[in-house]
Design a protein that fits this description.
Elements lengths: L4 H43 L21
Length: 68
């Protein structure tokens, strides 16, 4: 059985609005994903050990039988 034309048009409009909302949600999630990826990369760069021009000297030890 075919619904009346007015109900069909209303249903089409509702489905189009729902689709538009889902498309917007997908775009928002993709943007958030990209922002989080950039933030994670920035944090990884910040936490990575920095290259040093000269290595740190070994810790100085004190030996009671050794004089400098």
């Amino acid at each position: 059985q075919v619904p009346p034309p007015d109900e069909t048009l209303i249903r089409i409009a509702m489905l189009e609005a729902e689709l538009k909302g889902k498309d917007q949600r997908i775009a928002d999630l993709e943007r958030d994903r990209d922002e989080w990826r950039a933030q994670a990369q920035e944090l990884a760069r910040r936490d990575a050990p920095q290259e040093q021009s000269a290595p740190a000297p070994p810790p100085r030890r004190w030996w009671p039988w050794h004089r400098r």
